[in-house]
Amino acid sequence: MASVLVPSEVVETTINHFTELDASGDKRTMTRMAKRLGKEQPALLQYAATFRDKHGDSVGEAAVFYSTLVWAMYDENVGRCPRLTNANIASAEVELETAIKKIDGIGDKPVHERVSEELVTRQPNIYAKLQELIEEDVREDAMTLETAELIYPPTQVILEAFDAAISGRRPGVAIGPIVKAAKVGRNEPCPCGSGKKFKRCCG
157-180: per-residue pLDDT in tens? Predict the structure, then answer.
């Protein structure tokens, strides 16, 4: 199956949303997003957390941020991403490692250029933005070169995992739509079965 291309407009919209959210310091929206991510993508968070356990808080925070950014781009594009599984992420790791090993002298390139064109062609707009952000973070000392080297590969793994799950190459777990309970009108019979109007009973 072919990849579902994330357009550059969606990538930019997502980045703008994150920038505005960061600038506003809106804790409520940030908390809501974190809760949703925790509920819908626990395997993603567990995977990113392994980098905190191995390399410390700053690396872990960067891994979580970039993984969340990738999720948000896909989520903006498809409405609701499938839930990644540990198996899906492990397969994406193997795919990335295999693709990277084919490239001679990749370790000599700047961190943001350590990509496989084979994988970039699936999602060129996301890769272009990630390369721009990684390069900018390192250049402006928002992130050390060592941190960038540690978190760029897992960021690409999450990108590949979502691409595979959405395109059906390696399915994730579908997340159904959120169904809200029907609202009971004030003058309708109370759903508790009392026979009274809702406004005179449980309402």
Answer: 999 999 999 988 876 676 544 434
User: Which residues, at least 6 apart from 44, have a Cβ–Cβ distance to it below 8 Å?
Assistant: 37, 67, 71, 84, 89, 158, 161
Query: What's the pTM value of the predicted model, to 2 decimals?
Result: 0.81
Residues ≥6 apart with Cβ < 8 Å to 12: 129
**Among the residues of the chain, which ranges form H helices?**
8-24, 27-40, 42-55, 57-78, 86-101, 117-120, 124-139, 145-167
| Backbone CA torsion sign across 51, 56, 59, 65 | positive
Phi, psi of 85 (to 5 degrees): -115, 165
Q: What is the pLDDT of residues 128-152, one digit of tens each?
A: 999 999 999 999 999 999 999 999 9
- Interatomic CA distance for residues 11 and 9, integer angstroms: 5
CA–CA dist 26, 9 (Å, integer): 24
